[in-house]
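Sequence in, structure out. Go.
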Amino acid sequence: MTFFTFGWDKICAENGVWRISEEALLLWAIFGGTPAAYLARSAFRHKTRKQPFSNQLHTIAILQAALIIVVAGYIWLEPTALEAWLDQHLSTPVTPG
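Output:
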């Protein structure tokens, strides 16, 4: 969806019609569309020179990469801690009857 959203915004920009806000484009990136956002920027040559937007997209990518590294490292180094957390938070409490 992110790729197509960037493409649609490029079409709108070329035709001088209502545009998709930069905030909406960045939200698509935040919710998992960062690779598609970079691919779309390259494919459509869209939003490549807008410095505030580019910096914000780079920040999102860096934070997502850091989160993936932290979570993967935690799972790899502490699999029993992850299991304990899942048991604690996902188990259904048994009430005495």
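Check: The two ends are 49 Å apart (CA to CA). Helices lie at 2-15, 22-44, 51-77, 79-90.
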